[in-house]
Write a structure and sequence with these properties.
mainly beta, Leucine-rich repeat, LRR (right-handed beta-alpha superhelix), 19-stranded parallel sheet, 6 helices, disordered N terminus
């Protein structure tokens, strides 16, 4: 299922991603690293039950990335201050670490740009964080913070700040001085409000404030003119009428996630956001969509899953740029009418019709030449279509939890098919043997 996860998925920082992209060797043994210190650029000491680091680490003068996650460190040695080329460090999963002392030592590093201090069950973020003047990316998710120190406003070079899964009830107003911020992720906290002057963060491109207890957004939100991605979902007491009026001012907004918002009516104001490319409305209480939806001709991804939708408007077929359409868990919908609209959606690549108790699907589905993924799991199907051969670009076909006993023979004409899920069907051993022979390069799951 598509989600806002290109940026909003909870990011478990175990190691620093630059390592996987660099051609330099990643050392995983400190002993081996110290034998050739001039060659050590990336050092991964994660999951080694370390309770301390030796002073000899100071010999690694060319070290740029250091992963110390998932250990039992209590302190960082004074020698860490000698690693003046260090750009990235992960201190995640070290719950016994003296973080106040660690930050005090790390502030001596003039090139430290990225730091992860996640899942340490820390109750507070020490004021010494303000000393890390060169940080550009800071991961702090999965702790136990109830508030942030005002000194965080001293990180004037910060571009990305990740605070998911804490217990924050408010943010310091001083934090809005971080005018270089481009990404701010506050998913899964206990925020009741945002700073009134949050509009000062004019370079912000991505804002995730989902899964909180917000009642309204500050008026200054409308000044976030560079905002491109906004996640507002799972805020059960949010004043949506007021919020929608603010959203209309965000002319560069391309991605909007308002899933699980208890919406009973589709906000017509949304249809004025003609530049929107991705809209996630799953798990609401929507029964109908307005005719004005046809104005949103730039939509590429539309998720309407798990709503009590009965029908789609006549001009739904005007959304001719749709590439991904999620209609999972909408069993009340008029599917025959929907299938008639499908041929107009010529760019559809991913179609999700799972969990709908469908006994049959329209032949129009199997004529979508652009389709690469088709999800039909958890229905009551005994066959897909008379012919599958038109779906030349199909790579994934999910038919799990249906009533299939066999698959039409022309499945072998799906030359790009990579995955076929037939689990929890009544596929005989003979049919399995046939499929193995006719689909030798396809991963078939039973």
């Amino acid at each position: 299922m598509h989600q806002f996860n290109f940026i909003f998925l909870v990011f478990y920082v175990l190691s620093l991603p630059a390592w996987a992209q660099n051609k330099d060797k990643v050392f995983t043994s400190l002993t081996e690293a110290l034998k050739q210190p001039d060659k050590v650029v990336y050092l991964d000491l994660s999951n080694q039950n370390l309770d301390s680091l030796p002073a000899k680490i100071a010999k690694l003068t060319k070290l740029k990335s250091l992963d110390l996650s998932s250990n039992e460190l209590e302190q960082l040695p004074e020698a860490i201050t000698k690693l003046t080329d260090l750009e990235e460090i992960s201190l995640s999963y070290n719950p016994t670490l003296d973080i106040q002392g660690a930050f005090y030592k790390l502030k001596a590093l003039p090139h430290l740009k990225k730091m992860a201090y996640c899942y340490n069950n820390a109750r507070y973020l020490p004021a010494e964080i303000g000393g890390l003047k060169h940080l550009e990316i800071l991961y702090l998710q999965g702790n136990n913070f109830h508030q942030l120190p005002i000194e965080i406003a001293q990180l004037t070079t910060l571009k990305e700040l990740y605070l998911q899964a804490n217990h924050l009830t408010h943010l310091p107003k001083e934090m809005t001085a971080l005018v270089g911020l481009r990404v701010l992720d506050l998913y899964f906290n206990q925020l009741r409000e945002l700073p009134e002057n949050i509009g000062n963060l004019t370079n912000l491109k991505t804002l995730n404030i989902s899964h909180n207890f917000l009642t309204d957004l500050p008026n200054s939100v409308m000044h976030l003119k560079n905002l491109q991605a906004l996640n507002l979902g799972i805020n059960p007491i949010l004043n949506w009428r007021s919020v929608m009026l603010s959203l209309l001012q965000l002319s560069n907004l391309k991605i909007l996630d308002i899933r699980r918002a208890d919406l009973r009516l589709f906000p017509r104001e949304l249809t004025l956001l003609s530049g929107l490319q991705e809209l996630y409305l799953s798990e609401n209480e929507l029964r109908t969509l307005p005719d004005e939806l046809s104005n949103m001709t730039n939509l590429r991804i539309l998720s309407l899953s798990f709503n009590p939708i009965v029908d789609l408007p006549d001009n739904f077929k005007a959304l001719q740029n749709l590439e991904v359409l999620e209609l999972s868990g909408v069993p009340k919908m008029n599917f025959p009418r929907f299938f008639v609209m499908l041929p107009s959606l010529t760019k559809i690549q991913k179609l999700d019709l799972s969990h709908n108790a469908l006994r049959e699907i329209g032949s129009e589905v199997c004529k979508l030449a652009s389709l690469s993924q088709l999800n039909l799991r958890n229905n009551q199907l005994t066959y897909v279509c008379v012919s599958l051969s038109h779906m030349k670009n199909l790579e994934s076909l999910d038919l799990a939890r249906n009533k299939f006993e066999n698959i039409t023979e022309d499945v072998q004409q799906l030359n790009k098919l990579k995955e076929l899920n037939l689990s929890h069907n009544k596929i005989s051993e003979g049919e399995r043997a046939r499929l193995k022979q006719t689909l030798p390069h396809v991963a078939v799951f039973y």
